[in-house]
Structures are given as C-alpha cells and as structure tokens.
Fold:
Amino acid sequence: MSKGMLKRGCVNSALRMLSFIVLSFSGQHVVLAVEVTSEPLMLLAQADPTPAGPTGAAQPNNAVNLNEAAEKESEAVVDVPVKDEAPILGGFRFSLAPVEWGGDVSAGTSRQSYTPGSKFSRSFSAVNLRASTYIWQPWFAQLKGGVGVIDGKNYTGNQSIRDTSVVGSGSLAMFQQSRFPFSASRTVSDSRTNSAALVPTINFITKSTDVRQSYRPLSGLSDTIAYYNRSNSTILPINSQVGRASVGSRYNLQHEQRLPSYATRFGLSYNYNNLNIAASGNNLVIAKQANVSSQFLNQTLRAEVRRNESKFAVNNTNLRTHGSTLNHTYRPSTLFSLNTQAMYDKTRSFALVDIDNRFLQATSMAAWQPDADLPLFLSAGVNYFDSKLETISPAIIANPRTESKSRSGNLSASYNASPNVNYALAGAYASTRVGLIDNQSRSGSGSANYRSDMQQLGSAFYSWNANAAAAVASHTTQPSSRSLSGGLGHSLNAPQTLKNGSSFDLNAGQSILVRDSRLNGLSTSLTNTAGASWRPLAGETTSGSVSLALADIRIMGGDNRNQYQTITFGIDGLNRSSVNSSLSAMATLQWASNGQGQITKTANASLGYQHARAFDVQGLRYALSLSVLHLNFENTVTQINQLNRRSGSILEQSLHYNIGRAFVRLNGTISRYTDFKNDSIFVLVGRNFGSI
Structure:
C-alpha cells in the first residue's frame, strides 16, 4: 500500500471521527445516515492463487488493482456534487430530524369568598409551548422540552399583587432500548400555574434536576441503576414574591445480582437525601441496604440488612439505626406451611436526651391439615419479643432503663364435622415482663356451632343456628376470668316477585345469648332485627332500591346493662335516559339511641347528573353534584340538645366544551354549613395547537 493511500485512509478516518464528535455535541437536531454500498471501498491484499510463470515471477496482484480502482471510484463519487440531497461528511448523511410541536394558550379567572372570612380572586393568562425530536435515530437519543409563561393578578380584600411565572421542562433520553439506557431532565414548576387552583393559598416554585443511568450486562444476570435528583423549592405565602427556600439533593444507587439459575438474587442500595431549609438548618438522611433472596426445593429465604443515619436541624437531633430482617417459608405440600420471621432494630438518638432503643421480635406460624379428606385444620405459633429502652440524661436519675420482654405460644384446631357443624379449640400461653413487673397468662377456649339447612316454607326460607362456648384465662397480676355462653338464633327471608316484575324482600331475625362471666356476672343479650327492601325491575335505563332496617339490642343482667335501637332508611336510583346522560340519587336517614339517653340523628342525600352532549351540542359536557348532610346529637338525660349539631350542603356544577382545538371550562361551587359559607367560580378559555 502506497504512502498516499495510507495518508488518505487516515484522513478519511479522522474526518469520520470528527464528524461524529461534532454532530454528537452540536445543538442542532440532525440525523446521521451512513452511506452503504454493495462494493467494498478497500480490499485487504490477498495471496494470488494464480501459479507463478515459467521464470518464477509472480503474477500481478489483482487485489491491489481492485483497491486502487475502488478508491478512484470512491474519490470520483465524493468529488461529484449531488443536488437535492443532504451534504455528506465522513460517510454520514446530514438531514433535519422531524420535530413534533404543540402547545396551548388560555386565559381565566377565579373568585372565592368565605363567610366569615375574606374574598379572593385571581385573573391570569398563560402560554405553553412543547416540542419533541430525536438525534440521528429515535433509538439513539430523544429530546423533549417545553416552556410556559403565566401572568396573573391576585386580589385579596382591597390589596392586589401581580405575578409572572416562567416554567418549563427539558429531557434527554438515550439508548432506551439498549442495555444501558440514560435519561436526564430539568423541570421548573410553579403551583400558581395550576389553573384548577381556585384560591391563591400557599404556593411553591420548584426547580428540579433528575439524572438516571441503568446498566444490564449481556448475560442479563444483573441490573445497576444510578439516580440523582436536586431540587430547589421556594414557599410563597399569599400574595407574596418573597418566600422561604429549601434545597434538596438525593443520590440513589441500586444493584441486583442474579445467579445463572435465577433462583438467588442479591441486592444493594444506597440512598442519600439532604434537605436544607432556610432559617431552619440542614436535614440529612443516609440509608444503606443489602438483601438476598433464594428459592430452593420447597423453601424461600429472604434476608435484609439496613443502616440509616439521620441528622435533623430541629433540636440538633441525630438518629442512627441498624436493622435486619429474616423471612423463611417452608411449604412441602398444599397441606402444610411454615412461615418464620425475625426482625432486629437498634436506634440511637443523640439530642438533649441520649436514647438507646433495641428491639427484637421473632415469630413463627405453622398451618397443617393432616389429610386432604379430613376437614381438620391445625395451627400453631410462637412469638418472642424483647425491647430495651435506655435514657441517659442528667435530669433523669431514677429508672433510666426500661425493658420489656414477652414469650408466647398458641395452638388452635378447627374441625368441620359436617357442612352444618363446626368445633373449635384454642389455647395460648404468654410470659411478659415490663420493667420490674412480671406477668404470666394462660387461656383456653372451646366452641361448637350449628347452622341448619335452609328450609322453604311456602315462598319464604327459614334457618336456625345454635352455639356454645367456654373460655378460661388466668393471670398473675390480675384476677382470673371464666365464662360460659350459649345462644340460639333464627332468621326468615321472604322474597317476592310482584306483577310488574319488581322484587320485594322481607327479612326478620332473632337471637338470644346467655353469658355467665366471673367478672361481669350473668347477663342475657336479646337481639331483634327486621328489614324490607324493594327493587324495581332493573331495565336498560332505570334501576334502584328502597330499604328499611330496624334493630333492637337489649343487655339484661350483669354489670354492663344497656340497650340500643337503630332505624335506617335508604333509597338509591340510577337512570340512563340515553347513551349521553345519566341521573343518580341516594338518600339515607338514620336514628340511633342507647340506654344513657343519647340520641343521634343523621340524614344525608346526594344527587348527580351528567350529560355528555348537553343541549344536543357536540362536545358540550355538563355535570352536577349535590350533597346534603345533617347531624344532630342529643342527650335526653343532661338536656344537651346542641352538642355536635351540624348541617350543610354542597352544590357543584361544571361545564366543559370542546370545539375543534378550542376549549372552555366553567366550574362553580356553593357550600352552606352551620358555621361557614363558601362560594367559588372558575372560568377558563383556551386553545390547543400543534400535534403534542
């Protein structure tokens, strides 16, 4: 190869490299296209398979000739100007990438008044522009951005203030379909640009930067994610341009490693969060975590270790936390499972008072059905708890340490002798120590329940039930308890279908429970319930129901005598007169009383109406919502009749209209309550343009 060819080859390579660097870092959005030809630009020299001549001289090398011819042809092609095509540099073709753009312009006003209170109003106009494009190819780099300007004026009483906000965002996403996607974004937002905010209350100006880099190797056995965020927020009081600033920084690094079997995973994460608030100080939280999970045979094992460090400017408080968690599951069959969890945490707090807190808990639960054909279900559990709290302070001299310990276990069995009969047994033991006080408790219980089959009596259905239970408990620090109980109950349900196709249901029930307790004595509870409901035939356009429920509970004898009565009436309905409109309504009335003379009356109702094509105008949507509430609490014994009395209603209406790219929004709210009134209205008119 001649020195001229070598020099030209180096120059071409340098031009290609220079063009790629320039295009990668230029601010223009261009597309690079590589020229591809079916003929090689350069062929490597190869040994000529043609045998040597009689004199032994080698034949001319055809590869070199082809090389020279190809280079001449290439040079000729480069020198010839191409019309109506994008220029070529270093083998790359330049062309402007397609740009999608759009935006909106809008203007609006809002008013709101409180009684008692002040009146607020705001008028504003806004312009937002958005654009998106890509560099080279869509899979290489995608660019999105936007900018918006809002100019508003706030009125509070006799004062007014004008504010102008510039907001925007920009993002870059590269190699999104690859193993190493990268994204970065910058956002500037202002809560005052939220046109849905009716009242200029506490506002926020936020500037945020986000960077995210992910990586997955070709083997696919690990994932690594690095994330960075920095935000600057300013809190603006009502009608003020001067606020309280805070700066936050956050770093996050996560890595997960998998074994080739994918049954075992390892994970690491690091999280750094720093928040600096003006006039308050610096707040720092650093969290580190490592975890592993593995599945083998019929078992699953998960373990986690964490360390957190926090520093708060308030009271100069520092917290250090070390912790770990272990979970183990063993499930050899569908009839047996064993779940175990252990958790340990140690927290050290440094402030005016030095506090050292340690916490350890371990729990294990087992569930077993001896035979799939035997309806016997067994369960057992153990629990260990240990907590130590140590306080070190010159002001605390006596009992600076508090310790709590407990060990407990429980057993239970449930047997379904038949579809109607169930037996259950349970027992538990616990040993606790709180400070210097020890307590041991033992408890046991057994129950039997019977529910009859449903019996048809004409058009009604009748069933009855019976239950019996016994429980005993002993404690070393308080009196032991023993109780025996037995009960009977029955219910009747009579559904009827009327001639017009609607349904009418009647139901009634009664139950009695006799309980003998060593602590509360002998008592009897009598419960009576009744109800009725009417459901019109649910057609394609109309459905609804009306219901009435009554309940009376009386507890006689013993130390907890009382009585309760409740009456509840409800109605609801839904009507769809067309595919575009619907009307819904609901109302509930409730009255409740007890033996101490306390009476509560509650009434609430709601009405909703929606129409997707109001006044038969395409694109015009109307919605109405009305809610009414009344609550009254009385005490006939103390004659306090206005305690917690509250009444009110809320009426909300909205009108949305879209015609082409133009839109109109109208929202109005009227609130009336016992202690205040609130009225608000919001109007927005705007137009969208572009494709995004």
